[in-house]
Amino acid sequence: MSLKKARDIVGGAGRIARQLAPFQYTISPMLDSTQMQTLRDAVYRAAGTAQVREAVADFYRQVRADVDIRRPVCNASGRCCRFEEFDHRLFVTTIELAAFVYELEMRSWPAENESARAKWTGGGCPFQVAGLCGVHPIRPFGCRIFFCDPGSGPWQQEQYERRHSQLKAMHQALGVPYFYVEWRQGLAAMGITPPSLSRT
């Protein structure tokens, strides 16, 4: 399928599937070893495909435009990264994880990022550095649409449902197997964090 087709889908084509907001999902079970390998293979194949990376970048630009129009308040509190403390979870799809893995490997990051990840004990996000996101430019969709602003809850819900439907359609258009996994399970599958510390 062409990049134009994927971009058309990202732009709004396709049926909107009803989904729950990212942090209200029932927690998915741990992936077994076969599922982990299948996810890992799919992510690496997608990460190595410029067409996939470009489609995800286009998607993120459109999410940014939605946020710029609505202008929800971000207090930079870091609460969005502390999943257990605030009783929410982050889920990601195959192509989001692929774009993240590629950028994580290709960019230079401050030493503090690696230090925080090395000290991570399994709670919250392993990329939270000094209370804030250490990978903010390449964060997944759920992070980009989640705000502590109490007045933006319904808007966040609607945006997540609409945009996640587009993400699902992009997988089909790009020929990428669709996985929807808890963030730390995905990181563990990719060898970014130790499987023993992956939470559900």
- The chain-level mean pLDDT equals 79
Radius of gyration: 16 Å
- Please state how the strands of the largest beta sheet are arranged side by side: 1-4
Shape: globular
| Span between termini | 34 Å
How much of the polypeptide forms β-strand, as a percent range? Answer: 5-15%
Structure summary, number of beta strands: 4
Largest sheet entry: 2 strands, antiparallel
Strand-pairing-aware structural class = mainly alpha
Work out the helix count: 8
pLDDT below 50 for ≥5 consecutive residues: which ranges?
A: 1-28
Can you describe what's shown?
There is one protein chain. This protein is mainly α and 200 residues long. The chain has one domain. The protein has eight helices and four strands. It has helices at residues 3-10, 33-47, 50-70, 94-106, 111-119, 141-145, 153-174, 183-189; strands at residues 91-93, 128-129, 132-133, 180-182. Strands 1-4 form a two-stranded antiparallel sheet. A hairpin with a 2-residue loop joins strand 2 (128-129) and strand 3 (132-133). Helix 1 packs parallel to helix 3 and helix 2 crosses helix 4 (94-106). The longest helix is centred in the last third of the chain and has 22 residues, at 153-174. It is globular, with a radius of gyration of 16 Å. The chain starts with a helix and ends in an 11-residue tail after the last helix. 36% of the residues are buried. Residues 1-28 have low confidence and may be disordered.
Defining key terms:
two-stranded antiparallel sheet; about 200 residues; globular; mainly alpha; disordered N terminus; two-stranded antiparallel ribbon
